User: Fold these one by one.
Assistant:
Number 1:
Amino acid sequence: MIAQNPMLSFAQAHSLSVQPMSSSSHRPQPLSIDQWLKDIGRRALVMTNITLRHHDVSQDIVQDSLLAFISRYADKPSNEWTPLFYTILRSQIMDYKRKQARRGKWLTWFSPNNDDDDDAEDPMSQIATETDQNPETLLSRVNDITTVQHILSQLPNRQQEAFLYRAWEGLDIKTTADIMGCSESSVKTHYTRALQALRHGLQEPV
Amino acid sequence: MMNTQKTNSLDDNTLATHVCLTLEAQSKQSSDFDHTLALLAQQAKQTRQQALKQKNSQKHWLWFGGSLAMAACVAMITLTPFQPSNTVAPSPHYTASQESTVPSVDPQLLEDMDMLMALGEES
């Protein structure tokens, strides 16, 4: 059904057969906190893995974020859970990155990927490469999790966040902007750039 | 050129949908983190129940306190005797002795009256 209707986003397509939707997310409103936590915990782990590229650290960060959420916001209404949790998770990831940057202050100069510089264009991406625009090839590459994770992890932080929150989590632009601490137009820009980069990455020959 | 590229390839929504499907499939796979998540979920459920119970009891106390205050106000208004605003209530400290000491007639007037009476007798 999802593949047949290209106009539907992933989260929208999933919400068609379910209960009333929350105000900020296209995902179905969670019925119980334990089920919601299990679902979001799995997704958050994948997201954090993409961002940090370190499985154990990602697990620790997601666990800490979930614990912080439980201790502070467990009594909140269910439509506020997802934005609150992602706000906590994002700040934990940022804290970890800052700590890493402080530790490896001198080594960051030699790092090929500087995540803080979102708007800077990668000079390598300026070089024209031959791309395979055959939809079948694209689809086969999209279904490969290793390729998708690799391409997403190459994106700047903000583009990753905009794509994952908007497309995967199904959050609306305003909520995404609130979580990311930027304007709604920035979210749109990051999202569009993320899609372009994804397409470009998937079309590049292996 | 842009149009031909779009028609040849998948559109953005379809691409995003497929990427998300792949990510969702990855997130559904069982991992060593599932056990931790189950424990956290249990903890979350208990914490939420406790927090909601606490919130409810706080609400009850608030209602109780508010109702009590309202009842006290209503009782005070009802039981206080009605006094029209144009009548001046005498002060409870105002006594008869105070009344006698307070000069009610001007001494000058008394003198004048004495003089008039004396003049009247003479005439």
Number 2:
Amino acid sequence: MTAANAADLKRQAYDAAASFARSQGPGESLLVLDFGAARLKKGTYGAALRSGTFFSNEEIGTALQAAAHGYEDHHERGSVTIAYVNSNAFLGRPGRGYKAFDEVTAREAGEQQAKTLAGLDLSAHQSAAIGGDIEPGYDAVAKPEVAIAMVAGANSASGKPYYDVGTAPCTGGNCTNGWTPRDICEVAGGHGRVALPEIYFAGVVDQPSQWAKIQKTCKIDSFAGVSSSPIGPFSPQGSWRALREKTSAGVDPVIVVFPG
Amino acid sequence: MVVALLSVLAAGAAVACSSEDGAETSSAERDGGDIGRAMTETIPAQIDAQPQTFVSSEVLRPVTNAWRTASRERLTEVDAGALAADRSTGAFAIFRHDFVLTRQDVTLIEVKDSGPLRITKAPIGAGVEESAQRDGEIEFVGAHGVRGTLHLSDDTVSLKEG
């Protein structure tokens, strides 16, 4: 999402879901709307888009409702889960006008993210969920416990799976910015959490191997899919195959391709 | 066979799905057709000293600063920094979002041995939202001293002598 105001956020969400509805297959589908980094501004929880603009969870909820309408207006077949995704970018140093998160406020941010879904009016072939692009490399200031608290809060307040579309940049027992593999488990594994690992690279940065180790450490039975990008050498299907070949866990047939 | 589609919009929307054996079965290559629309508000051209970035932290890290603007029809953001896998290589991640076509794409430009890049001069303010995306000149410096210009007209970089 890249809107400059709430009306445009609704417009983008509607258009994206409408376009998605027209192109989806006959089965279940998952539409992930990434609203950028979780933020707390003057006591209001929400998210700042990657292009910078802050929106409250109330405004994001309105956009999610617009997405539901866009999907419905152009629905041809299949069903969809619409996911409100944020990220952990700069939770500890969020910039001017925002309050840095601690474990308490981060947990509350997660809870509020989940509660954003409560008022949505969805059709019989729609549902809603939450998730995060949780990347240790996104935040060099906040402790891992802050992002973990955000995910825990979201997970605790939602009856749906939490979708992690992030990274696991670990070597041995150490990961980027002080994270550990066990920290990754708190985001990508365990009750109510499912991962679609980022698989962009397999050279100097060997993401399939990184996630294979995480899978063993976290005892993940199956991944919900993969996240891919043309910015790396893999085709979308190549990302999926690379993860499946490296891990003993199942990999569901879902591929996120960024950007689209 | 379960067929699922998944799209990330923030960042990107796109989507592919596969069968159990990994064979591609469908693709949501954007087919916006008549769906997309212009936005109601533009974003004046600006340099952001602390951008989130549109790409993964495994692609670009550190991210030094960014330049962005949006007309009613499209947005462009240039994130400056270095490759996460090799900080001696400076890099730009250029993210574009066409609102009318409901299409997004990203291009990675590398500058070898420059160190992390920082944008030093670029079109700024209102009134340049469309022209700057079309043929803007983004001046930059690398941590190792190299200076140059990113040309948005063709996504190429020219380096200054000395």
